[in-house]
Amino acid sequence: MQPVVSREGGGGEEALAELDDDQPPDSAKFQCMPRLRQMQSSRSPKSESFRARHFPSVSDEEWGDWRWQAAHRYRKLADLEQVIELSSSERAGIERGGSMLPVAITPYYMSLLSPDDPTQGLRRTVIPTLHEFVRLPGEADDPLGEDSHSPVPGLVHRYPDRVLLLALDYCTTYCRYCTRSRVVGNGELNASQARLERAFEYIRRTPSIRDVLLSGGDPLSLKDDKLDWILTRLREIPHVEFIRIGTKMPAVLPQRITPQLIDVLKKHHPVWMSVHFVHPDECTPESFAACARLADAGVPLGAQAVLLKGVNDDVDTLRELTHRLLLMRVRPYYLYQCDPISGSAHFRTTIEQGVELVRGLRGHTTGYGVWTYVVDAPGGGGKIPLQHQYVLGRDGDDIVLENFAREQYRYPDPEAHASTGMRPMRLPVVTGA
Q: What pLDDT is recorded for position 203?
């Protein structure tokens, strides 16, 4: 109960009233938030319809169990044919298979795919096509040079103060544009204690490492006790201050975010999480609930997306994804240019298009929702941020700037006053602006 000052009544005397803390909020204030109301419903209508058609005898408990979902993934051509109408390119891509990235899709995520439209964005991200077998110049199986920066198996040390720890090579759902398609799904990078101890030992004897990103594969594919053990071992290293987990589970298998998992994560705070979303259709009630559990548990959430041709390469789709993520308490973080992995040309946009897409968001959504567009430099150069050039140049003592509406403005910045010992910016000379 908290006091509220009332100025009503005669004499102008202030009276204290009490407001019940448990009083429900005025529902009228939420009437202008249709996205939020839709996402707060208990289940996705698509998911419920799919389940009624293809799993009519499965109980709520089974459908909501992440282990059941993982055990009933769609992996083979015959299974896929039962739920979607495959195009000739999809069918040929699956049949050809070979050493390519395996196919695996959880029943929940399959429920979000169009059964008859092979051009649907989500479907293109998880169903292979013959395009994956087209290799173009500049593509590579390991375009980021991770293997050359790996001091021990499954550990990548590229930046001075941080490492990437690949816990395993398993995902419940495989993305066709995966940077590590050369590694994931082949069973060679398992979560064995012996391998992981070698990684822990390297981190322990390298005091410059303060930040560990746990990835894979998807580390949330691990059982709770295994994940707990890994986090415990990392927390035993005094100079490790920052632990991040990279996962796509809230999008492809939100049922994984259980109370038991939350208890594990809370034991090891501060733990941050980078969640992978690429399209607003992934922002379902189930995903909303999963992210709410994480946020309520004090896990900061940042979204990482990949810019994909035909999936999210237009301003409207990217803005809708942005707004839905913000409602889910997930802050948009990195928007990656699709890495030039072998067979990825059908997913890659131009760099210019990526810059213009992010420019189209600035000024039209909150600054919290503007992605940092990056290219992960081929060969191991690390992330390079790219953005529209809003500084047009110098005109005398003025810096000429451009705002989100492409209007020009001047900021007084006399060169004589810029002598700070720092190297001055090299700007083009603008006249008549």
A: 97
